[in-house]
Specification:
Helices cover 26% and strands 26% of the residues. The protein starts with 25 loop residues before the first helix and ends with a strand. A seven-stranded mixed sheet has the order 3-2-1-4-5-7-6, with helices on both faces. It is an alpha/beta fold. Helix 5 links the parallel strand 4 and strand 5. The protein contains five helices and seven strands.
Length: 181
């Protein structure tokens, strides 16, 4: 696993072998951030990374200058790795990991609104298709915010009222959603 761009560009990490997360491929990450680079001023963005896994996407945001990233992950093993990486890179004031069930976090009453919400759930998760509805129902995004859902080809969100587009990179698909479509 490596960081594609920004101040930590090229930095490599080796997650422990007992990690079960499926990190987003470098090709898909680079393509995603090429799209996002044209839409956001990273220094003024807040990000929520759901199903953070190894933290790969969170590190990409921080490396590009995002000063406030919350990474929600249920696995203690994954969070231990994220904490180790935060310490290695000196990210304590920028990247804030939380051990919590993602669905409990979304439905929780006390969370800020975000410019970007990124979710990379297990592709086989039964509740994956409910995530866009939950994000908008619980008003997680700021008014012009963007929700990005990583998923397999099995899912098609084109009929969702907040759907904007899907980008595909091999077996990785990113569907984009906005409140004001």
């Amino acid at each position: 696993m490596r960081i594609i761009s920004g101040i930590f560009k090229g930095r490599r990490f080796a997650p422990p072998t007992n990690i079960t997360a499926r990190p987003t491929t470098d090709f898909a990450k680079e393509s995603l951030f090429n799209v996002l680079n044209n839409r956001f001023d990273w220094s003024s963005v807040s990000v929520l990374d759901l199903f953070a896994g190894t933290g790969s996407i969170s590190y990409e945001f921080v490396s590009r200058g995002v000063k406030d990233v919350i990474a929600v992950e249920m696995s203690e093993r994954h969070l231990t790795f994220i904490h180790q990486t935060i310490n290695e890179l000196g990210l304590k004031n920028m990247l804030h990991p939380m051990r919590m069930d993602v669905f409990r976090y979304i439905k929780g009453p006390h969370h800020p609104k975000f410019d970007i919400v990124f979710a990379d759930p297990p592709y086989a998760m039964n509740e994956l298709s409910t995530l866009p509805d939950l994000i908008f129902q619980y008003q997680i995004l700021k008014e012009e915010g963007l929700f990005i859902l990583e998923h397999s080809a099995k899912h098609d969100f084109r009929k969702h009222p907040n759907f904007v587009e899907t980008r595909s990179y091999g077996n990785v698909h990113f569907s984009f959603f906005q409140a004001n479509v």
